[in-house]
Amino acid sequence: MRTVIFLFISNTFMTFAWYGHLKQQGTALWKMILISWGIAFFEYCFMVPANRYGVQEGFNGFQLKTIQEVISLTVFTIFAVTYLRESLRWNYLVAFCMLIGAVYFMFKK
Q1: pLDDT value at position 88?
Q2: b/e for 27-44, b at 16 or more Cβ within 10 A?
Q3: Which residues 6+ apart lie within 8 Å of 13 measured at CB?
């Protein structure tokens, strides 16, 4: 559980670092790069422990990456709808369901 919580926090920082600048088109690109690097520092402060805890909790690298991608997509969806004000279309939801299917197979023994 600690792994999942840390991954949610990490991905929240990552999403703002990578996509938060899209609403700041008037700010110089070099400034946005520096700001994004600053935000990404905090992402790493949670991502590295999340992965380390994940291994201690019994996940392997493939499973950790799959968990991270699903969490990243979840965080980004919330971010895109609330912050970027983008619409959530039906085909996005179908694609998300397919990714959930991938998670099922990733953890199948």
Answers
A1: 93
A2: eeeeebeebbeebbebbe
A3: 39, 40, 42, 43, 46
CA distances to 30, 45, 67 from 104, rounded to whole Å, are: 41, 29, 11
Q: Taking each helix axis as running N to C, give the angle between helix 61-82 and helix 90-107, from 0 to 180 degrees, rounded to the nearest 10.
A: 160
Confidence label for 2 from pLDDT (cuts 50, 70 and 90): very high
Task: Give the pair of three-digit tokens for residue 69.
Answer: 């991608």
How is residue 88 annotated by DSSP?
-
H or E element at residue 57:
none
Which of residues 8 and 104 earns the better pLDDT score? 8
Q: Which pTM value belongs to this model?
A: 0.85
